[in-house]
Amino acid sequence: MFISAFIVGGLICVIGQLMMDVGKLTPAHTLSSLVVFGAILDGLGLYEPLIDFAGAGATVPITSFGNALVHGAMAEAEQHGIVGVVTGIFEVTSAGISSAIIFSFIAALIFRPKG
């Protein structure tokens, strides 16, 4: 289990690094591309089997955010129609985004940057 998580997570990171080094993409373009790649894989039904195989190796990298966006939108669209597309995106990703904002704010209060 740990080996497959390490290999898959490492391969996702290697792809991102190659996009920046070889493809000369900026970090923002690389980040956006990996999110879109995760969304496409989920839309094709390929990201869930990857999560089943690799566990945290597939859920920790940024590609998982794209997976969460599409997964939430598709699940809610089945229940609530077109309105569910928007609400599903917010429902699935709101906890992660909210916690990132809160913990970043707390870190900014505790630690003072030098510069």
- Poorly predicted ranges (pLDDT <50, ≥5 residues)? none
| Structural class category | mainly alpha
- Helices, by number, come to 6
Q: Helix and strand string, N-terminal first?
A: HHHHHH
- Note the main sheet: none
Overall mean pLDDT score? 88
Give the N-terminus to C-terminus distance in angstroms. Answer: 43 Å
- Helix % is over 70%
Rounded radius of gyration (Å): 16 Å
Q: How many E strands?
A: 0
As an assembly, this protein is: single chain
* CA-based shape: globular
- Whole-number count of domains: 1
Percent range for β-strand residues: under 5%
Structural summary, described in words:
With 115 residues, the chain is mainly alpha-helical. The chain has one domain. 83% of the residues lie in helices and 0% in strands. The chain has helices at residues 2-21, 27-43, 47-54, 56-59, 63-80, 82-110. The mean pLDDT is 88.
